[in-house]
Amino acid sequence: MRFFRPRTGTERGHAHYIRLKLRDVHQLFNSMDPSPFIEKDLDEDAEEFIVSWAQEFPADDPVRLHIYLEQWPAEDPKEPIKTAVHNYFAHRAEIADLEFKRLLDQGRISLAIGLVFLSACLVLSKVLLGSVASTWAVVVREGLTIAGWVAMWRPMQIYLYDWWPLRRRERIYQKLSHMPVEVETRTKKLIVEAGL
After folding, report:
1. Three-class SS of residue 5?
2. Which of 18, 25, 47, 95 is exposed most, by the fewest CB atoms within 10 A?
3. How many Å apart are CA 149 and CA 120, to the nearest integer?
């Protein structure tokens, strides 16, 4: 399997090409996946290459996948490959959406736990040590306050930062699930380039 550095349009909004050169069609898919052809997982290297290049391009620009096959199978592989690639990335988009929803659920639970713990720490510091002015009381009071706010770290991280990568990945997978997929034999391309 060989990967080509994508050629891009010079202006924003032009389609960007991602090109793969394969010996045969089976190199595109995970050989360990027993699913029917149009439901097979993509090969890990091929998926990483396609996704990484899609991330390099502006989010709103279209992408096209161009696959060159050295060995053309007996039956025309264009439609099965196109369907399999679209199915795979649509499934990956669903998984990314599910991960996003689970992260928000975890954020809600973490937020509830954090708020309860913070409230308990603040109430304890006021009730038990509110009027005591000794050094150890101040240390314990400040320690309880800090512990309460540390408990809020995880929900704040989820709601402020952790959801961005999941949403970005889901959008990329959705875009890839609709991208045009072109398949041709490498010998046909060589003949065209030679002007024959």
Report:
1. coil
2. 95
3. 11
**Contacts for 110 with CB less than 8 Å, ≥ 6 apart:** 154, 155, 158
For the beta sheet containing 181-185, the strands, ordered from the edge strand earlier in sequence to the opposite edge, are 2-4, 16-22, 63-69, 181-185
Tell me, yes or no, whether 146 lies in a domain. yes
pLDDT, residue 152, reads: 94
CA distances from 87 to 71, 91, 118, 161, 172 (A): 24, 6, 46, 29, 14
**Phi, psi (deg, nearest 5) at residue 46:** -65, -45
Same domain for 85 and 65, yes or no, is yes
Q: Which two tokens stand for residue 189?
A: 């391309």
- Torsion (CA) 37, 43, 49, 52 in degrees, nearest 10: 90
Query: What are the tens digits of pLDDT across the range 115-168?
Result: 999 999 999 888 877 777 788 888 888 898 999 999 999 999 999 999 999 999
In a domain, 173, yes or no: no
Whole-model pTM: value is 0.74
Q: Say how far apart CA 100 and CA 41 lie, in whole Å.
A: 21
Q: Does one domain contain both 12 and 43?
A: yes
Rg of the chain over Cα atoms, rounded to whole angstroms, equals: 27
- For helices 135-150 and 78-129, the axis angle rounded to 10 degrees is 160
Looking at the 3D structure of the chain, how many domains does it have? 2
Range of the domain at 41: 2-96+178-194
172 in any annotated domain: no
